[in-house]
Structure formats: C-alpha cells, structure tokens
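Hi V.,

You were right to ask for the full record rather than a summary. Here it is.
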Amino acid sequence: MPLQAIPKVSRSHSAVLYQMYYDRPKKRGKAKAEPERKQKTRPDPKRKPAKPAKQRPAKPKKQKDKQNNKHTLLKFVALLLVMALLAGGGLYIMPVNTFGSHTAYGAVQKLPSGYAHVLLIGLDLDGNNTSRSDTMMIISIGKGGVKLTSLQRDTGVYIEGYDGLRRLNAAYAYGGEEGLIRTINQNFGFDLSRWATVDYDSFPEIIDALGRVRLSGISDDEANEINSNMREQLLKKYRAGKISEQEARRVYAANELKSGGDYTLSGMQALGYARIRKTDSDYGRTNRQRKLISACVSKLKSFNPVTLVRFFKAVKGNVKTNLGTLELLSLGEKAIFAGGISQTRLPVNGSYIDDGGMFHDVDYALNRAAFISFVYGKQ
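Predicted structure:
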C-alpha cells in the first residue's frame, strides 16, 4: 500500500489502541498460596524449655594459621629426616668429629677410635631434693653396633676437690656434667667428652613419643614396684597441685599392672620400671635400665618417620646435651643402621670389694681393659 494511503491515526484512535492493549487477556499463573498463619498458643508452664544446641566457637583465623604452620613444619622436618636417613651415605659415613670437638675433662688416657661415646645421665631427686645421677650409662655407637655400659652408682671413686672415697653418683651433685665426666675419666682412664642429661620427670614424655616400648619377662615383684612407683609419682603431682585426685585415680587405674608378664609399657609405667630399687641389688637396677634403653633403641630401628620426628622433638625439648643438632642426627642415624645392641656394666665382677654400701679397692686398669674389650673387641 502506498504511504499516502495509510490513514492518519487521530488522538482518539491512539487512546482506543492504548486501552485495547491493557484490556487484553493476561496469562494466568498459579496463584500463590497465602502462608498459613500460626496460631498463638500459650506456653505450657509444666514443660521445660528446650536447651539451645551448643555451637563450637569458630577458631580465630590466626589460631588456624598457627596450627597449619605447625603441621607444615612437622611435615617438613619429617621430610628432611627421611631424606637424610634414605641418603644412607651422608651423615652415616661422616666421622662424628666433623661436627665439632668437645672437652674431655680430666682425661689422661685415650680410648681407641671407631666409636662415639655419649654419657647418658638420668637425674632423680633424693630425700633432700638434690639432683643425683641415678643413671650413668655410656652409649657407644659405631659400625659394630650399639654398646651400653652401666656405671654402678655405688662405685667408690676419688672426686677432685674432695677428700676420701666417695660414691660415683655424688659427683654430679658436686660438679654437674663436667664434674661427673672428669671423675669418670680420672678414675677409669677414659676420655669421655659427650654427654646428655635427662630428668626422670620428663622420661614419660620421651617414651610416649616413641609410642610405648615392649618389655618381656617382668616379674610379679617388679609389677608391684612399678605400681608403687606410679602411685608415688601421682601423689607427688597431686600435692604439687598439678593434677586432681580424680584425674590421679583415673591415670593410675589406666596404667596399673595386675601381674608380671610381657607388656608394652607407657611412659609412666616405664619410669616406674626404671626406678625399681627394692626388689634386688644395684646389679638388677642397672640391668633394668639397660634393658629399657635397649628397647628404646630397638623401637627407633623400626624406622617409622612419624615416630622419629616425635622422638627427636621430645628429646630436644627434654634433654640437655652438648651435642649439636647435626651431631645428634648423625649419631641417631648410626644407631638406627648399626648392628645389634650389647650391654654390660662396670666395675666388672672380681675387680672390687663390696662392703654393703660402697665398692672399694676397685681395679680401674682391669675395668678399662674390660670396657675396651667389650666395645672394640679383643685388643
């Protein structure tokens, strides 16, 4: 149609079209149901109001970040430790003296090379609350294995600066680690220079870091003494306000030994075992301590990376030592990959006179020769 043929729409036509548009039938949707009105009811006075659900407070972001960083650090340390151990050659074949030398106080003779000797000192309080070296053990580590040598605390020795014969375990009270090493070197003819000191109260944490230790052949008398030592330890904590009576009873019930036998001991049970004194002589006590340390070394040889990280963390936090970190790792690696574990004690039978309170007239030259033969083989 030509443009001129389209009729002009007047204003009235526009109004009609506008009205037709809005009057068109609309699409009907589903009618929205009106929400039901809840009837107000009066609360029942006999009915107890429901307790609101407990919600755990959200951890602050800083705390979460701190925990994540801690876990990441542990994983990183575990990775480094595994890499160091799997490297095999690195720290294992390097001489321990590579990481620095230590002063051999009072040394007048030298021991043969090939083994690194660390004096392990276990401290306990006596009746006067004085720290005494209840455990003195030389841990010798080399390619031939791990050799444990207990030094009996009743051994009569001469201590520099003091008159007369004194018991060996008094040397630490007089001069600390340096005084004890000096006394051992001067009397036995050794050249010990490395030491590690652990307080008996921190011993359970170290054992638990290993995931408990397995000991066999515990007698009924030893089981009773373990229980007695645990009660004494818990009572001490209770009196110091470190533990409640209820918690002390719960811990004891969880650790009590019903009889002798083979057990996987917790840290508290192991400490009770190491403290046994009444069932027999000093020979039996030192034998139990060597047996316990041997079980710890055997557990380390299982080569569980997580256990190793926990153990080294517990050692660094509870053991005082003059060993550096690399030196400690090197010795640990040597102990893990070395041969078997052997043990003995000094002084040897027939080299002293026992008067019931102290060993005197000790033949130290004979004991030096016995130690060298035990660690290095026939010389």
